[in-house]
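DM from R.C. (forwarded with permission)

"hey, sorry to bug you on a friday — could you get me a structure for this? deadline for the figure draft is monday and I only need the backbone to look sensible"
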Amino acid sequence: METATIMWIVFGVVAAILVGVLIRGWISVYNKFQYWITRAERKFADVDVIMQERLDNIHALAQIAKKYDIHEYKALKDVIEARSRWKRDADLNEKVKLASEVENTYLKLQAVFERYPNLKADQMHMSLMERASVVERRLRKARLQYNRVAQQYNERTRKFPRNVVARVYSFKELDYLEFAGQKAYEPREIFADQTPASI
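My reply, with the result:
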């Protein structure tokens, strides 16, 4: 065999190996993005369940306000709209935004009760407020867990070479879940020893 032919064969084998490694790496990065986005969706599903309880609580509070013939139209209208918007299908970032709106609606309704002492003294209101504090604790925990996963996913969308795969397949950064009256989530740099290197 001629030297030139042997060189072309060696070059072809090396090129095939390099292409195989690149394809395998590309697929691996893509699969890891799918893993993290699925994890974020699962964590938000926990938030979703608690937000349904929050919406039921908000609706019950609005009914108490109506019972006392107190018509804070804007606050009550916001309750109805928040409930209907929550039920429709939306992507993860839109759901995160809606969750913040639901919390704002809850705060507005609470402000209505603050202005009317007879509402606050209602036995049903007191019972709902006890339930609301339990929901609040669970929501705070679920929110933190979602935000941590969102942070891990977001870091992967920014770093080279993963950001190339993220752009090609439209893996966009996830919004953090922030609620008025609660401390904002401040992402900290995640170090290699805190998360599995293979993921």
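R.C.: lifesaver. The chain has one domain: 8-187.
me: no worries. Residues 191-199 have pLDDT under 50 and may be disordered.
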